[in-house]
UniProtKB/TrEMBL annotation:
Full protein name: SAM-dependent methyltransferase
Tagged with keyword Transferase: yes
Keyword field contains Methyltransferase: yes
Species of provenance: Planococcus maitriensis
Swiss-Prot/TrEMBL keywords: Methyltransferase, Transferase
Pfam families associated with the record: Methyltransf_25
InterPro entries, sorted: Methyltransf_25, SAM-dependent_MTases_sf
An MF annotation (GO) of this entry: methyltransferase activity
Chain ranges passing through the membrane: none
Gene Ontology process terms (BP): methylation
Length: 240
């Protein structure tokens, strides 16, 4: 997938995500240490963690996303290494006190084997006693809420139409997005198609355990509450 244009508008789409709360969630468990931020996107979370004193390495599969992230780090005066790699291929990486996969990025792995391999690779990259933080869309969100499309946003410099349909795999969704981005006095149109898949909470817990992790907490929607049948975003904290 070409993330070129998408990378340019990604921050506008994510402005409602409370990244600061995500960092607070991590800081409740560990106040310092080395962190590998997988699927870092444009580097918002990496930047916030580095500003709090974490030793951050940022990674993403998309070169376009990393270009935006590097620009962000340079403007902030932060020395954050960047790596271009897939979540399920961390061969040779080790020595981290924590690994994060934030903002439902794990849901871009469509196959069970990819998720399992990611958990195994993350486990290998962590120091003993290290933590794995990630969140995913709930089954309810994918199967029910996402099916209420179309969703429309109309801003001064950006507008989009977002249509969804069920994917071929269980608990999967196809997002078809049409963007209109201001270029001077005109708007340029481009389209993106993204597919995501999630799994039940107990399945994630089982795979984490199989990889060697101890699952320490499972919460929902940026709260300390356990997930219920209508939770939308599920947060996992696991320990090696």
């Amino acid at each position: 997938m070409n993330y070129g244009r998408f990378a340019a508008v990604y921050d506008d789409l994510m402005e409602d995500i409370p990244h600061e709360q995500y960092v607070e969630w991590i800081a409740e468990t560990m106040r310092s240490g080395s962190v590998l931020d997988l699927a870092c996107g444009t580097g918002v979370l990496s930047e916030l963690m580095a500003e709090l004193g974490y030793d951050v390495t940022a990674s993403d599969l998309s070169a376009d996303m990393l270009t935006v992230a590097q620009r962000r780090f340079k403007e902030s005066g932060l020395d954050i290494p960047v790596l271009q790699l897939s979540m399920d291929n961390l061969e040779g990486l080790e020595g981290f006190d924590a690994v994060t996969i934030a903002i439902d990025s794990l849901n871009y792995l469509a196959k069970e084997e990819q998720v399992k391999k990611t958990f195994e690779q993350v486990y290998a990259a962590l120091n003993t006693g290290g933590y794995f933080f990630f969140d995913v869309h709930s089954v309810f969100k994918v199967d029910e809420i996402f099916m209420h499309s179309p969703f429309v946003y109309d801003g001064e410099d950006l507008a989009y139409m977002w249509h969804t349909e069920k994917g071929s795999a269980p608990h999967s969704v196809i997002h078809d997005l049409t963007f209109f981005v201001r270029e001077g006095w005109m708007f340029e149109r481009f389209e993106e198609t993204h597919e995501q898949r999630t799994f039940p909470v107990d399945v994630y817990k089982e795979w984490l355990t199989e990889a060697g992790f101890t699952v320490e907490s499972v919460t929902a929607d940026f709260t300390e509450d356990a997930p219920n049948d209508e939770s939308e975003r599920i947060f996992f904290r696991a320990k090696k």
